[in-house]
């Protein structure tokens, strides 16, 4: 298996894990404060490149979740000439927590102690949702969500967690300053 295929399969594996079970998701946004978000009424989906780390099944789940979330906010899906485009990206990284604990006592050079070390590794996934002004072809808003990934979720868990993550990210849009 060549390196490109391995990389693509690895990212797809992690994408499946992200949508499996983020019990705690932290969300953030960045945006162009000079942009007039009130003029946006319609949106469309931009093609997802292979390097975005999202497989076809999760892309469909994400699309459904984004459509539901934006519809609740009053935006309409357009295949003709949308005001803004939706682009997606996923990444993951393995983190390690090391905790040491113990006790000891002694006097001078003499002493005695006991201790232990706990090492835990876990994967953290980040979903990024970008909104691009289609006329100017520039990024106007970026929302992201990050959470600890769970392995081997059921289809129902995966769908539920995608919906939750997308809702939390898109709840930030439009930015408070721009409302």
**Estimated radius of gyration:** 21 Å
Mean pLDDT equals 84
- Low-pLDDT regions: 1-17
Major sheet summary line: 6 strands, mixed
Helix content: 25-40%
Q: How would you sum up the global shape?
A: elongated
Count of domains: 1
The H-and-E topology, N to C, reads as HEEHEEEEH
Strand content is 35-45%
Structure, explained:
This protein has 179 residues and is an alpha/beta fold. It has a single domain (3-178), classed as Double Stranded RNA Binding Domain. It is 27% helix and 40% strand. The chain has 3 helices and 6 strands, in the order H-E-E-H-E-E-E-E-H. The protein has helices at residues 3-18, 56-72, 155-170, and strands at residues 25-31, 42-45, 76-77, 84-107, 110-133, 138-148. A 6-stranded mixed beta sheet has the order 1-6-5-4-2-3. Helix 2 (56-72) crosses helix 3. It is elongated and about 80 Å long. It starts with a helix and ends in a 9-residue tail after the last helix. The relative contact order is 0.27. Residues 1-17 have low confidence and may be disordered.
């Amino acid at each position: 298996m060549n390196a490109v295929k391995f990389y693509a399969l690895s990212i797809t594996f992690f994408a499946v894990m992200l949508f499996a079970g983020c019990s705690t998701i932290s969300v953030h946004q960045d945006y162009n404060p000079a942009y007039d978000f009130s003029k946006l009424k319609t949106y469309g989906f931009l093609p997802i490149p292979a390097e975005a780390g999202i497989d076809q099944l999760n892309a469909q789940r994400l699309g459904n979740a984004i459509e539901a979330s934006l519809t609740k906010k009053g935006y309409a899906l357009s295949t003709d000439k949308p005001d803004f485009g939706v682009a997606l990206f996923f990444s993951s990284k393995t983190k390690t927590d090391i905790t040491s604990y113990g006790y000891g006592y002694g006097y001078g050079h003499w002493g005695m102690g006991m201790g232990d070390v706990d090492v835990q590794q876990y994967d953290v996934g980040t979903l990024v949702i970008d909104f691009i002004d289609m006329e100017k072809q520039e990024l106007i808003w970026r929302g992201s969500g990050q959470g600890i990934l769970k392995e081997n979720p059921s289809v129902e868990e995966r769908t539920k967690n995608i919906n939750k993550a997308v809702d939390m990210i898109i709840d930030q849009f439009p930015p408070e300053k721009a409302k």
